[in-house]
Design a protein that fits this description.
- The complex is a heterodimer of chains A (101) and B (473).
- Chain A is an all-alpha fold and 101 residues long.
- Chain A has 5 helices and no strands.
- Chain A is flat and about 60 Å long.
- The relative contact order of chain A is 0.10.
- The relative contact order of chain B is 0.09.
- With 473 residues, chain B is an alpha/beta fold.
- The chains are: A mainly alpha (101), B alpha/beta (473).
């Protein structure tokens, strides 16, 4: 990738990350940390490429470990974040739920 | 090796899908920053992850597919199983564990790239320029530190590592390790090729740094550190993304890196600590804590009387602390509050930023018990309301309601924002025994004229209060 374009991506993504969560309320700090933890689970994709293009035994072993760890990051991050956020309900939603059941 | 599709078609599909992945991640994170849309946010990001992973199977020239599927099944399966089972109270260390895995994966990618430099013949080394090697090495360094550091953080919060190891000159040792790691890394970049030993030494040093950096940090500061490592992992992922020319990794990594840094700062601020303070000095290192003179006495009250007091109140503010979660009392407490609400009492929950094990953790625990989030208020919202409250009910919280934080300059918690429970007309404190709190500081709130102490296990006391309120009518 062109070096300058990479720098542009770097700068714009950094601003985006900052702005996107700049006004997050304290009540969501824990789930948001968990959610951003899930997002960098995309490292799985890189680990897959590393394993897929490995042609030595050492490369395969390290790539294999990388994919195991990356998949753990992605799946684990998703499961715990989803579990936490699923519990956040307002009073209105609670009442609706009660009536439905 | 032959890919699954013709090369040009595959590349086009992959590039297009990564653009979509980046878009979905950012939309997901945006939605996650409001309680109304948060649930949708994680699903949106999850769809992005699924698309990215599936499309990556199409990369031209990839092999080892059976190995890849086995690895995904093992890692994903274990994480799915553990993530579904973990208790809400143990959430912080689980996040640390998954984060460490991400850091490890980034380091593994870097390791594959760096070892490739070892095997290459001197004349064919030009596969990587110095900039790419430097990025790979930087990602390896940060990822490895995040990996071993997160594992130590997990061990500490899980109770596997009981004490904080500190010795004189620890920071000097850490700095020396940093310097050594950077020197080895620089030699890799400058030489352009390498030996097996150098790469192994490089990783060993980085892993060691993560351990020595994290071991001295106390349990109370751990959330800030986990959040920092989260940002680290993001950065490491982005660097490896540059190496692999993978746009999805670059964008997701940098977004998490910057969002994580901001989040770390917010958390440190909520805890009244600076980041440098957390990393370079242990809490409780200030020596013997001056307790100061406490006027008055602890005045116990029976749960039945306390129940009547609340039943005839107009407004009750509940202040839950981690002690409540330890006693697993949140369900009983919410049952108690529902009873009060049915009687026409106005009930609010006041959450201190550091209630629970990390900022926002108490909200998760209350949400698990079924408390709607619009009854929960944070410090800034609720502090003015204490003056109009008839009862402030403190359950398992201590330092966060200690008025000395406002008045006593010699106190280690001086300057920490607190909940103004002392401003309420009556204060009820549910507490297991008479001992001092987490930080060992005497709590002056407990000695005030309008404070009554209810001793006992939080869950049992809550049950007795429910009984008393029902009896009151």
């Amino acid at each position: 990738m062109e070096g300058v374009i990479a720098l542009y991506i770097f700068m714009l993504a950094a601003f985006t990350g900052y702005e996107v969560i700049a006004r997050v309320p304290v009540i969501l700090h824990t789930p948001l940390m968990s959610g951003s933890n899930f997002v960098h689970g995309i490292v799985l994709v890189g680990a897959m490429v590393a394993l897929g293009s490995a042609d030595t035994l050492l490369g395969q072993v390290i790539g294999f470990i990388g994919v195991v760890l990356g998949a753990g990051n992605a799946v684990g991050g998703y499961v715990v974040t989803e579990r936490m956020l699923e519990m956040f309900r307002s009073s209105g939603e609670k009442r609706k739920q009660k009536e439905a059941s | 090796m032959q890919g699954l599709l013709p090369d040009n078609v595959a590349t086009l599909l992959i590039d297009g899908s990564y653009l979509l992945v980046a878009f979905l991640f950012i939309m997901g994170l945006k939605a996650m920053s409001s309680p109304v849309t948060a649930r949708r946010g994680i699903v949106v990001a999850g769809v992005g992850m699924l698309i990215g992973t599936l499309m990556s199977f199409l990369y031209p020239g990839m092999g080892n597919f059976p190995l890849m599927l086995v690895a995904i099944a093992i890692g994903g399966g274990l994480a799915w199983w553990s993530g579904k089972r973990v208790a809400m109270t143990d959430m912080p260390q689980m996040i640390a564990l998954y984060n460490g895995m991400g850091g490890g994966a980034a380091a593994a990618i870097a390791a594959v790239e760096l070892f490739r430099m070892v095997s290459a013949q001197p004349e064919s080394v030009a596969t990587h320029g110095p900039i790419v090697t430097a990025l790979a090495a930087a990602g390896a360094f940060i990822g490895a530190v995040s990996f071993s550091g997160s594992l130590i953080a997990f061990g500490k919060l899980q109770g596997l590592i009981k004490r904080s190891y500190r010795f004189k000159g620890q920071q000097v040792v850490n700095l020396l390790i940093v310097a050594a790691t950077l020197a080895v890394g620089a030699s890799l970049v400058v030489a352009g090729h390498s030996t097996m030993q150098t790469v192994v030494l490089f990783f060993a040093l980085a892993l060691l740094l993560g351990v020595t950096m994290t071991l001295p940090i106390g349990g109370a500061d751990m959330p800030v550190v986990i959040s920092l490592y989260n940002a680290f992992t993001g950065l490491a992922v982005a660097f490896e993304g540059f190496v692999l020319e993978n746009a999805a990794m670059i964008i997701a990594g940098i977004v998490v890196g910057s969002a994580g840094t901001l989040l770390t700062q917010l958390m440190a601020k909520a805890m009244n600590r600076s980041l440098g303070n957390v990393l370079f000095s242990g809490f409780g290192d200030t020596g013997v804590v001056a307790t100061g003179d406490v006027k008055g006495a602890l005045k116990p009250i029976e749960p039945s009387d306390a129940g009547v007091m609340m039943a005839f109140a107009q407004k009750v503010i509940v202040i839950p602390g981690y002690g409540m979660a330890v006693a697993q009392a949140q369900h009983k407490v919410w049952e108690l509050c529902q009873l009060l609400i049915d009687k026409g009492v106005m009930v609010r929950f006041a959450i201190h930023p550091v209630a629970g094990r990390m900022p926002g953790h108490m909200n998760v625990l209350l949400a698990e018990a079924g408390v709607p989030y619009d009854l929960i208020a944070d410090l800034d919202e609720i502090n003015a309301e204490f003056e109009t409250a008839d009862v402030a009910l403190v359950i398992g919280a201590n330092d966060v309601v200690n008025p000395v934080a406002r008045t006593d300059k010699s106190s280690p918690i001086y300057g920490m924002p607190i909940l103004n429970a002392d401003k309420a007309k009556n204060v009820l404190v549910i507490k297991r025994g008479q001992g001092a709190g987490f930080s060992g500081i005497e709590n002056h709130l407990f000695y005030l004229d309008n404070t009554r102490m209810v001793y006992g296990d939080a869950q049992k006391v809550a049950a007795e209060l429910i009984h008393a309120i029902k009896a009151a009518g």
